[in-house]
Amino acid sequence: MINKLDNPVWYxxxxxxxxxSIDYGDVKFYQPDYCPFGAxxxxxxxxxxxxxxxELKDIFFVVGEKPSFFDKVILKNxxxxxxxxxxxxxxxxxxxxxxxxxxxxxxxxxxxxxLVQPGYFNSKTVMLGEYxxxxxxxxxxxxxxxxxxxxxxxxVSAVVTHPDYTGKGxxxxxxxxxxxxxxxxxxxxxxxxxERNSGAIKLYETLGFSTRRKISFWNFIxx
Length: 223
Known about the structure:
Layout: H1 8-14, E1 21-23, E2 27-30, E3 37-40, H2 47-54, E4 59-63, E5 73-85, E6 99-100, H3 106-116, E7 131-136, E8 139-150, E9 153-161, H4 170-184, E10 188-194, H5 198-207, E11 210-222
Parallel strand pairs: 3-4, 9-10
Antiparallel strand pairs: 1-2, 2-3, 4-11, 5-10, 5-11, 6-7, 7-8, 8-9
C-alpha cells in the first residue's frame, strides 16, 4: 500500500479525488482549476495527453518519472522534492487559535498562498481538502491544509506563513493540527518539500517526519 506514494497524483485521481480528474487513459490530470498536477503509468503514451492538457493549462507539472513529450510543450525545469511521511501525532503545545478556512476565508487563503508560493494554488484548490489558518488582528498570517488524497494517505500542503510573521512557530502548530486531523481519519500524512529547502526539511524532521524518497515534479509550459 505504501508504494502508492511512488505515484501520488495517479492514485489520488484514481481514488479519493477521482471526481477532479481529467482521464486520458494511461495519463491523468487534475482539472486545471483545482491543481496543476498530472501523472501516468505508461511513459510511451504521455506525449499526446500532455499536448491536450497544455490547451487547458499553460503551466503545469507531471509528477514522478520523466514523461515523453512533443514540441508543443517546453520542459522548463525539474523540481526535485523529498517525499516525507509521519505516522504519529506531533506533541506540541498550541498557543494560537486555529481557524477552519473553508467556506468563509477562501479569498484570504488564496491570496496568502499566491503571495508566498505562486503557481501551486488555483481557484478551486481549497475544495480538495480542509485548510486551517492563524489570524493576527483579523489578518490571515499563516495557513496549512490538505491537497492530494488517496485511500490511506493525505498530503499536507500549503504550509505558508506571511513573510512578516515567520519565526513565530505558526507553521509548526498548523502542521501539527493538520497531521492530527489526518491521523484521526486513520490515514497517513505525507508532504513534498523541495530538496533545496533545507530550512523546511529541518522543521519537518524536528516535528517527526522522515524522508521516504525523492520525487520529481516536471514543470511544463505551453510552447
